[in-house]
Amino acid sequence: MPTVLAQPPMTPPSTQPYSDSEIMKRVDACPKLASLQSINRALAGLVNSEQSFNSQIAEIIRRDPSLTARLLRMVNSVYFGLTAKVNNIEEAVFYLGLRQIRELSMATPVIEEMEKISRSGHHYPWRDLWKHSIGSAIMTREILATTTLLIDDDTDYIIGLLHNVGKVVMATAFPDEFVKIVEGTYPSPQDVCHAERALIGWDHARIGGYYLQRHQLSAEITDAVLYHNSPESAPDHGFYAAAVQVADQLVRYAGIPGGFEKVEPIADDAWLKLAGWNILYGEGEKETRIARAALSNSVQRLPTVLNGLI
After folding, report:
1. Is the pLDDT of residue 234 over 50?
2. How confident is the model at residue 40 (pLDDT cuts 50, 70, 90)?
3. In this structure, how many other beta carbons lie within 10 angstroms of the beta carbon of residue 217?
4. From its phi and psi, is residue 73 left (phi > 0), alpha (psi between -120 and 50) or beta?
5. How far from the centroid of its chain's Cα atoms is residue 114's Cα?
6. What is the distance between the terminal CA atoms of the chain, rounded to a whole angstrom?
7. Which member of 116, 201, 253, 274 has the greatest number of CB atoms within 10 A?
8. 25-29, 184-188, 201-205: lowest mean pLDDT where?
9. Cα separation of 1 and 250, whole Å?
């Protein structure tokens, strides 16, 4: 039995609008994200190789027009402040560096596939969600880099990128309910989850977690998505879920909304009160001060970085 269903139901069975089996059936009918099974393996292999050359990486990037366009747009954005426009992929690889190339190679196919799933009769501002998703991926990686957790793969970036995939699935599987959710106004992201559970039975975190389990992704990823609004409830991998919760708020604070719902602006230092912050850094003043200082610059430059990406 999937671990998503092993958790206590968040809506009493007698009042849940849809049964678990009906929700699962609708989610199962949603298209899968093929890119999650192989996120640019050829490029990832080269980026990880110590023998890689910019020319080899550039040759693979040229095979993907969308990735090429996104890479050139980013390197020519105001964030880099270059005096001359870069039109050469080898130069772009040089300026961006292997880490950002790898991040782009992961984000581009996932965002494109989510765009295809999200196409419907409603014109939601999906671009805002893509911005928030990539921003959360960047900040989740930055946050975990300030902790003692050692990560030797891209789990930190992927969990931030995918944490709101449940909203994309929800718009497809429950379009009528999703319209009502989007039309609402909420004091906090937690209140959005309450509205989702009241209308459907599951919130976007649970739908997203189940959807990713169907892709047979690792427990670190599925648990982080499932518990990103309540990391203190995660039986395992709570550190990852905590990082996503804090990243989500920091990205919102930077002026990049997490969805289409009207949610009150995030107050200064509101993230310090999150369960996720306490899980990551504890309650010590020294740890909080160090973490805040380390993340402050990242939050300030995030809007500029994202404008170059999307």
Report:
1. yes
2. very low
3. 20
4. alpha
5. 12
6. 38
7. 201
8. 184-188
9. 34
Token pair of 133, please?
């998703």
**Tokens 């419907």, residue located:** 120
Return the CA Rg of the chain. Answer: 19
When pLDDT is cut at 50, 70 and 90, the band that residue 88 belongs to is: confident
Amino acid at 86: V
Model confidence at 100, in pLDDT bands (50, 70, 90)?
confident
> Which structure tokens are listed for 115?
């765009």
SS3 track for the chain:
CCHHHHCCCCCCCCCCCCCHHHHHHHHHCCCCCHHHCCCCHHHHHHHHCCCCCHHHHHHHHHCCHHHHHHHHHHHCCCCCCCCCCCCCHHHHHHHHCHHHHHHHHHHHHHHHHHHHHHCCCCCCCHHHHHHHHHHHHHHHHHHHHCCCCCCCCCHHHHHHHHCCHHHHHHHHHCHHHHHHHHHCEECCHHHHHHHHHHHCCCCHHHHHHHHHHHCCCCHHHHHHHHCCCCHHHCCCCHHHHHHHHHHHHHHHHCCCCCCCCEECCCCCCHHHHCHHHHHHHCCCHHHHHHHHHHHHHHHHHHHHHHHHHC
Who's near 43: CB < 8 A, 6+ residues apart?
Answer: 57, 60, 61, 101, 102, 105
In this structure, what token pair is assigned to residue 49? 């190789």
Token pair for residue 174? Answer: 């429950």
Report the 10 Å Cβ neighbour count for 186: 16
Which of 106, 101, 98 lies closest to 36, judged by CA?
106
b/e per residue 243-270 (b: at least 16 CB within 10 A) = bbbbbbbbbbbbebbbbbbebeebeeee
